[in-house]
């Protein structure tokens, strides 16, 4: 992790090293977890992970803006995005 980023591969290796579980199985569990979070969000449900935070969807309203090059009005439709709110514990830990 020389670049300071935790990739999925790095995460799998660290979990496997820390638990003694084979990386193959860690990869399967991580993939299943990601799939579950994704399907719950697509269904419009919140996903709360203790000591980490809450994932939820939010709708951005439709709007009109002026295109920078032409200065003509452009309509942007409403979109759904994912929001994440960290737990107070994690926020505190990051600020120590």
Task: Produce the secondary structure layout.
Blueprint (H helix, E strand, L loop, with lengths): L7 H12 L3 H20 L4 E3 L3 E8 L2 E4 L6 E4 L2 E8 L1 H7 L2
Antiparallel strand pairs: 1-2, 2-5, 3-4
Account of the 3D structure:
The protein has helices at residues 8-19, 23-42, 88-94, and strands at residues 47-49, 53-60, 63-66, 73-76, 79-86. It has a 3-stranded antiparallel sheet. Strands 3-4 form a two-stranded antiparallel ribbon. 41% of the residues lie in helices and 28% in strands. By secondary structure, it is an alpha+beta fold. It is elongated, with a radius of gyration of 19 Å. Helix 1 crosses helix 2. The chain has 3 helices and 5 strands. Strand 3 (63-66) and strand 4 (73-76) form a beta hairpin.
- Biggest beta-sheet profile: 3 strands, antiparallel
Return the structural class.
alpha+beta
Judging from the principal axes of the Cα atoms, what is the shape?
Answer: elongated
Assembly category: single chain
**Percent of sequence in beta strands:** 25-35%
Rg from Cα = 19 Å
Spatial order of the strands in the main sheet? 1-2-5
Order of helices and strands: HHEEEEEH
Helical segment count = 3
The overall pLDDT, averaged over residues, is 94
Question: How many β-strands, per DSSP?
Answer: 5
Report the helical percentage: 40-55%
Terminal-residue CA separation: 22 Å
- Uncertain residue ranges: none
């Amino acid at each position: 992790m020389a670049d300071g980023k935790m990739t999925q591969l790095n995460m799998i290796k660290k979990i496997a090293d820390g638990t003694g579980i084979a990386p193959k199985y860690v990869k399967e569990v991580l993939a299943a977890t990601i799939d579950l979070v994704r399907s719950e969000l697509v269904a419009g449900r919140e996903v709360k992970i203790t000591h980490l935070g809450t994932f939820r969807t939010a709708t951005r309203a439709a709007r009109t803006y002026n295109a920078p090059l032409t200065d003509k009005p452009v309509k942007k439709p409403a979109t759904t995005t994912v929001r994440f709110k960290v737990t107070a514990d994690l926020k505190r830990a990051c600020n120590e």
